[in-house]
Amino acid sequence: MNRIPRRILLTCLMLAACFAFIFPFYMMLMMGTYKSETLFRIFAVLPGDYLLENLRTVFARNFLHSYWNSLYIAVFVTLLSSLSSAMAGYAFAKYDFRGRKKLFNVVLIMLMVPAQLGMIAFVWEMKQFGWSDTHLPLIIPAVANSFGVFWMRQYIQDAVPNEVLDAARIDGCGEIRIFFQIALAFIRPALLSMGLLFFLWSWNDYMLPLLVINNSDLQTMPLFIASLKDYMRTDYGAQLLGVSLGTIPLIIVFIFFSKSLIKGLSSAAVKE
Amino acid sequence: MKEKSARNIIITPATNSRKPRRGNKPGKRNRYAIFFLAPYIAGVLVFWILPILFTFAISFTKWDGFNAMQFIGIENYKHLFLEDGRFFKSLFNTVVIMGLSIPVTLVLALIFAYILSGKALYAKRFLQLGVFLPYIMTPVAVGIIFALLFDQHYGFVNRILMYLHIIQSPLPWLGNEWLARITLAIALIWMYCGYQMILLMSGMSMISEDVYDAARIDGANTRQVFFRITLPLLKGVLVFVVITSLIGGFQLFDEPLLLFNSSLSGKFPIGGPDNAALTMSLFFYNESYTNFNFGYGAAISYMMFVVIALISFVSMKIMDRGDRL
What we know:
By secondary structure, chain A is an all-alpha fold. Chain A has helices at 3-31, 36-39, 51-59, 63-94, 100-112, 119-128, 136-139, 146-159, 162-170, 175-186, 188-204, 207-212, 221-231, 236-256, 258-271. Chain A is globular and about 75 Å long. Chain B is globular, with a radius of gyration of 25 Å.
């Protein structure tokens, strides 16, 4: 069989599939440039002329504010989750302490627990802590990321050689310094891809902020996007422009990191 | 999960003639584990175990969050199973929506992964990224966009189908019980296909080229190679993909909520027409935070967990046993 036509055929096939996956994004972008009345009369496949008006409508709201909220929350969540997961994963992978197996089973069970299970009491607990209408309920619980622990343990087992740790011990290096100065260096690539995922999940989370944030000054990006329809009732052009502005910048950033992100996702599945 | 702990028992190096200065004896050293585990354990206790236990207690009460709790025994569970049809309906809906979306997603993802893993392709990275992109999208935004695209009167989908004369009158995508579920399934397929494709591709990349060569020498054709070699060797990844999809599917929340909330042609109730897209998670949310019936909500969340645990357990068993897929 001649190779080139086959290659072109498969590429075209995938291009068509790709088109189907990118199309809703494209429509979102295009529809944001139209006046609502025109939007539903024509096929909005080409850019419209109402972009500036829509921009004005969207920026009348505290749009940038929710951007900033989501950004700093996601950064803290990523740092907290990555550090605590790496530490716990390291303990599971490299120390032989009593009850290790039992404790690790707890991690595995936690992986199956739906976030909704403790939600009612969690929200109440946050109120008791005096954390309601702050961002703390979204940030601090990130220290307990069972998925991260599970993943880090798998990774550290193979990626951090025991010989190196032992050599450091012989040279009199303390256990804590060994972790921060030696082990962390070995797991840096995994930390990057895992951190990207944590960032993404934190940024996109909707249910938890919905339950613990009532103050519109504190709202995160998904809350902002969801609330667009409440004050732009019939202004669908502006509403979609808001959705685009709320999602596209992050997507562009992630396209640059997509290699690491994809590597991170796949290492979770392949190691299993 | 295979325990590979044997290789982790730290062997004191034979060359250890010098007296160690600190933290070097295995027994003493292992105490440091508690230091490394402390943040995680504290977090799990405070933010997971404690609320989970407390929620269990709440599930035996009647509580609106303001007035005093009232112990009512197993009333909530009784109501859930015997009187309130919505619980089984939401379980049914969740299963149906997953039944519509997961197999299609998986098959598409397998095909894409197989094509993209092969050498016969141009612009591989671009194509891979294109299919993967929806996974990065905020689920809330997905709900809004699909609500507009699938709107009965103004939506792009109906208008293009009418324009091409595929349908005569606009379909009530969000207004009809089954069409609503299908629309939601389409949104989910769109979102998660790329994610599954990435996982499957990485699984495929782990299969050694030698196995394929050996098969070809034995005269296997492309189809035989795929079904007899690629698929069976992908089993581990497939199990992972299916189980994570199931666990995720049972927690489906943002997309159905926004999909039926953002419709142009009038607002649908939470859960869509006739509660057709009332997922378990939505049911839980609605009872707890719209009706402020926390005791009942707690009972629902416990039943959700039981279902998820059962399904993960059963699917793990089934996938483990099946030698052929």
